């Protein structure tokens, strides 16, 4: 009966399997690099610029908060600042809530 069934013999693994494993990882590596350069790196750069801007705030600067409130800084603390939004009206906000610093005299135009 052995003549109807051929013997299954083990063959040596092909050398191309190792190369195909490396080429299988190549798209993942490329995807990781694209993700880093298009998403992660610009976000880290924006965070550093925002931190530098917040540290450079001074009394008398005119700013806009993330909520859209504009005013002049009257007092600075370590984590908070006092923002004068109109004559006699001041609001205490976190320093991290500052979105941008306006040029001097911008609030007078409003």
TrEMBL record:
Xref: InterPro entries: Preprotein_translocase_YajC (IPR003849)
UniProt-listed SMART domains: YajC
Membrane topology per record: Single-pass membrane protein
Location, primary (coarse class): membrane
GO CC terms, sorted: plasma membrane
Cell compartments where the protein resides: Cell membrane
A matching Pfam family: YajC
Keyword Transmembrane recorded: yes
Residues spanning the membrane: 20-39
GO BP terms in the entry: protein transport
Keywords linked to the UniProt accession: Cell membrane, Membrane, Protein transport, Translocation, Transmembrane, Transmembrane helix, Transport
Signal peptide: none
Family in the record: Belongs to the YajC family.
Protein name (Swiss-Prot/TrEMBL): Sec translocon accessory complex subunit YajC
Organism expressing this protein natively: Candidatus Thiodiazotropha endolucinida
């Amino acid at each position: 009966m052995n003549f109807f069934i051929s013997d299954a013999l083990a063959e040596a693994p092909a050398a191309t399997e190792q190369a195909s494993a490396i080429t299988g990882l190549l798209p993942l590596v490329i995807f990781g690099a694209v993700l880093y350069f298009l998403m992660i790196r610009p976000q880290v750069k924006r965070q550093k610029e925002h931190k530098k801007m917040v540290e450079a705030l001074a009394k008398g600067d005119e700013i806009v908060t993330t909520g859209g409130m504009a005013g002049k800084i009257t007092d600075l603390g370590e984590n908070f600042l006092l923002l004068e939004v109109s004559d006699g009206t001041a609001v205490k906000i976190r320093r991290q809530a500052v979105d941008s610093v306006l040029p001097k005299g911008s609030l007078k135009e409003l």
